[in-house]
Design goal:
The protein is of the alpha/beta class. It is about 35% helix and about 15% strand. The structure holds pyridoxal-5'-phosphate.
Length: about 425
């Protein structure tokens, strides 16, 4: 670490603090670290330090950073067609991507709407569900049913289905639409599912079915709302209940999609298909912002047959060819790399490596599924202390509240996973 590198980093942080607003941060974010470049599973800070990445840039960089296959695809697309409006025009990268998404997605989904971020993919899913009922002449079906502990995005429609306690319901009371909430699926991933695990949701579905357009959940793994893993059998029962009550089922796989849980999609653990599916995050392997909403023929056909017959949505950067090219390349890598073996290996290494954390004071629960390892604490961490402590350990880990979690790129080596788990244990031992 030379003097000038750390000065450069310091100056960048100071300039940032004058003009930039960071996610979920006050105007002057703290602490803040300047990044110079990334490679594989490593982040190189401007001050010369190197960190092992435990976050995949929020679930996204599944193949590691700067994968040559994705970089080449973006460069080649850049020289041909970087962007063009999608109204009235189409192009190979978008059409091929939609074809390929339908091939890999749970069966029964037959049409793709491309959009530019995860929250918007959920907004579109909600809009599709409401338009479906408007087209059927049932405008009173205008509420959603979801479970506690969910996270579906930061826009107003999506915030309204985030966890009512950890989300922003109290803060934005009176502004958010009012939806129905049931208890979160209480059966752990490998626990036998019993009817009582879904009884609260089943009761609410039965009581309120005449006002409910759709049930929306994150299959198998609830992400930012609580990092909770639940039984795939819950999803099979949920599908039955939705069919019984003629309610649409929406899966938000923005976090779980593309291998993170050990299967291509969370829904694949249960072999269940939703009526509407939202994808995002790792869709482009963490390089470009792109998301998608997949819809069944029954839903799109009903909207086509109603008034106005069109889906009333259309982002300016819809179907961005650069992002579509990156997504193709990421799907190529999912076809050609041993990601399943890697995720399995990482799962075992996270389970073993995080096990000692269970014995630490202040730790409530330790759980692992696929390439996700979670240490749930009894009290929220103090970010001003633990964030620099993780960096001192040479790892990038960004907890929220009581949850310290790892979701490294699938290419992370055993040695690097060891650095991540040892670093987490050391920091929690010192500070939790
Ligand atoms: C991140 C996330 C979103 C929101 O995606 P953005 O790209 O951040 O808007 C929605 N749903 C789930 C499950 C997510 O993990």
């Amino acid at each position: 670490m030379t003097q000038s590198d750390s000065e450069r980093a310091q100056q960048l942080v100071e300039r940032d603090r004058r003009v930039v607003w960071h996610p979920y941060a006050p105007p002057q974010a703290e602490p803040l670290f300047a990044v110079d470049r990334v490679e594989g599973a490593e982040i190189h800070l401007t001050d010369g330090r190197t960190l092992v990445d435990g976050m995949s840039s929020w679930w996204s960089a599944i193949h590691g950073y700067r994968h040559p296959v994705i970089e080449t695809a973006i460069k080649e697309q850049l020289e041909r067609l970087p962007h063009i409006m999608f109204g009235g025009l189409t192009h190979e990268p978008a059409v091929r991507l939609c074809e390929r998404l339908l091939e890999v997605a749970p069966r029964g989904l037959e049409r793709v709407f491309l959009c530019d971020s995860g929250s918007i993919a959920v907004e579109v899913a909600i809009k599709v569900a409401f338009q479906y009922w408007l087209s059927r002449g049932r405008p009173e079906r205008n509420r959603l049913l979801t479970v506690e502990g969910g996270y579906h995005g930061d826009t107003f429609a999506t915030m309204a289905v985030c966890d009512p306690v950890n989300g922003m319901h109290d803060f934005f009371r009176g502004v958010l639409p009012d939806h129905r909430f049931a208890e979160r699926p209480s059966c752990r991933f490998d626990e036998p599912f019993e009817e009582h695990h879904i009884a609260d949701l089943a009761g609410k579905l039965e009581r309120h079915r005449d006002e409910i357009a759709a049930v929306i959940v994150e299959p198998v793994v609830q992400g930012a709302g609580g990092m909770w893993f639940y039984s795939p059998a819950y999803l099979r029962r949920l599908r039955e209940l939705c069919d019984e009550h003629d309610v649409l089922l929406v899966f938000d796989e923005i976090a779980t999609g593309f291998g993170r849980t050990g299967e291509m999609f969370g829904a694949d653990h249960a072999d269940v298909s939703p009526d509407i599916l939202s994808l995002g995050k790792s869709l482009t392997g963490g390089t470009m912002t792109l998301a998608a909403t997949l819809v069944s023929e029954r839903v799109s056909g009903t909207i086509a047959a109603g008034e106005p017959g069109a889906l009333m949505h259309g982002p300016t950067y819809m179907g961005n060819p650069l992002a579509c090219a990156a997504a193709h390349a990421s799907l190529d890598l999912l076809e050609t790399t041993p990601w399943r073996e890697n995720v399995k290996r990482i799962e075992n290494e996270l389970r073993e490596g995080l096990a000692p954390c269970s014995a630490l004071p202040g730790v409530g629960d330790v759980r692992t599924l696929g390439a996700i390892g979670v240490v749930e604490l009894e009290a929220p961490v103090d970010m001003k202390i633990v964030q620099p402590a993780f960096v001192e350990q040479g790892i990038w880990v960004r907890p929220f509240g009581k949850l310290v979690y790892l979701m490294p790129p699938f290419v992370t080596s055993s040695e690097q996973i060891g650095e991540l788990t040892r670093g987490v244990e050391a920091v929690l031992r010192a500070h939790a």
